Amino acid sequence: MDSKELQEEFTYYNYLDNEKWKLNLPSYEKTSSEVVSDLPKVSVIIANYNNAPYLEKMLDSLVNQTIGLEKLQLLFIDDKSTDTSVEIVHQYLKKYESIEIYQLTKNTGGAHGPRNVGILNARGEFLVFLDADDWYDENALQYMSGTLEKSGDDMGFFGVVQSVNGKLSLKSKAYYFDGNKIGRAIQELPSAFYEWLGPQGIM
């Protein structure tokens, strides 16, 4: 592919300068903890639709992060759930700082809508997406943000483990087989990195 073809392809797929997507987002009602940080280190965006059975485990993993709640912004964006999701998060919001609930006025039909609302409202130096039925190791956000601070890299890919009926399996083996390296161009990553790239392990 020559440089002209590459430029045409980039122009076609480049959405960075196109802000029309912001106009298509639904309105929302926002509720916040009594105390929230204006300049958090990490913003955690959680898109949710009817994940009530999993929310306590997910939220417990966030409020107990070793980085400290005062350094977090926890954005829970609810895609008009019909279960008790919002009620569960409200209980945490009353008890803990740094939690923000965004209740969309209409269902968007996918994670992209809630995540985009989260992006527009994120204030953190670093950004992560966490699925509502997943959770972090208690040291995860401290380790991830610390790694990026030391390396100066724009993005970090970290390990993801799957739990099925209590049995754990590594979902991101390439990260371990290839070694812990910093300062790499994304074009240099081996193809194994793209076999399983869930958002949970990326900051």
Measured on Cα atoms, how large is the radius of gyration?
18 Å
Low-confidence stretches: none
How much is the average pLDDT? 87
What percent of residues adopt helix (DSSP H or I)?
25-40%
Q: From the helix content, strand content and strand pairing, which structural class follows? A: alpha/beta
Largest sheet: 5 strands, mixed
Globally, the shape reads globular
Order of helices and strands: HEEHEHEHEHEEH
Adjacency order of strands in the biggest sheet: 1-4-3-2-5
Tell me the strand percentage band. Answer: 15-25%
Determine the number of helices (DSSP H or I, runs of at least 4 residues): 6
Q: How many strands? A: 7
Q: Note the gap between the termini.
A: 31 Å
Topology:
Layout: H1 3-13, E1 28-32, E2 42-48, H2 52-63, E3 72-78, H3 85-95, E4 99-104, H4 112-121, E5 126-129, H5 140-151, E6 161-164, E7 167-170, H6 173-177
Parallel strand pairs: 2-3, 2-5, 3-4
Antiparallel strand pairs: 1-4, 6-7
Helix pairs in contact: 2-3
